[in-house]
């Protein structure tokens, strides 16, 4: 099947339509179909960089990976088609079999024109907004199936959050959070992520930041600031704020948060799938019904709309309650996770393929998805309770063979070292696990020219291809702490061919300074 995706993204429309279409594109490509795009899609490099792509084999690009192609939508980008006749012309020129439209303003006459051209139409609506007839109609909102929809001849209705199209990154984040929940809880103040969509079209960030600050609760707050916007962040009070740019893997950051404050758009379904406690803001009129149903279902706390945020105290009261009550946050997350399973994009693609008289390669798609999700790892800060585990890994003969210090360490010395390491601001010591348990450790030490990495795969998990994913998990954890653009260093012995291959695959390059007197080379890259 040759599938055309029609959507726009920009300062006035937001990026939610493009994000939803990106999920459909991933599923279509994994199902053996060809993908084309029509729309205005500038400024979305962060979105394309975080997508799961398919070339001669499937792979998951990670932020900062080496030798990545220039960001762009997966598939072929065509000019925008703004009416039925232009859309039909594109379909005829490029032999399109089906069109997926996620756009409110293209009118209600698309299906008749496309059917006459032998093209199936899939169309997305949000309750009544964007409603038009289609061969397949998608409404991913909670409660959509209970709302009466006039019979307009649309034969297939996919209604409810089980049909929410979500990217593979969201499903990976769901797995990562599940692994994290099975390990030791993070210490310290709650971690809060504030994200008002890809453009913050309603200008909500300053109002939301004021509400978080007014809550007066210690917290580590990351505020996602869209390109071209600026937000003044408080520099006093118990909460510490940090501005971050658009993130290629926003779902991975969501998975590490104790609370996400979000606009009630497409991000809601991502947060539900990941299973993150959330407080929602009604950013636009077309979000009102979705906002109401999610809050009423107990899957999110509500902060109201733009007018409700004009005074910070009402929102601050809700946030204060959430930030000081972990049980309340857990209850929201549990209910949210039950709402969305993450399979919506696959269900949409299969329905569209059937409408176009084609079939999806579900066997290959399932294999790739299962392989990808099985390889998800979660990194957490080490604690004193990890002393025995880390000592066993450190004293393993193979580990000591390639270390700068090859002597065996006694338990008392190791415990003192661990206690000191946990107190250092220039060291980050991580334990990395999958659903089967710990797979190794990653340590970062801040040097004058970057953060130096030390990686150890658990002896009992060697040979399982875990070294690169282990390193990536450590990099993601460091990037969350320090931000993008962080220089990192690996020091590898000249005789350690396995480590040299590992870091080369991960994008580390020799800095050209040569080996030191002990035979160690320095490799570098930028996160």
UniProtKB/TrEMBL annotation:
Keywords per UniProt: Transferase
GO molecular-function terms, A-Z: acyltransferase activity, transferring groups other than amino-acyl groups; glycosyltransferase activity
PROSITE patterns for the chain: GNAT
Keyword Transferase: yes
Keyword rRNA-binding: no
Domain N-acetyltransferase: 377-527
InterPro entries documented for this protein: Acyl_CoA_acyltransferase (IPR016181), GNAT_dom (IPR000182)
Gene3D superfamilies from the UniProt entry: 3.40.50.11190, 3.40.630.30, Glycogen Phosphorylase B
UniProt xrefs under PANTHER family: GLYCOSYLTRANSFERASE, UDP-N-ACETYLGLUCOSAMINE--N-ACETYLMURAMYL-(PENTAPEPTIDE) PYROPHOSPHORYL-UNDECAPRENOL N-ACETYLGLUCOSAMINE TRANSFERASE 1
Name of the protein this chain belongs to: Spore coat polysaccharide biosynthesis protein SpsG, predicted glycosyltransferase
Origin species: Pseudonocardia ammonioxydans
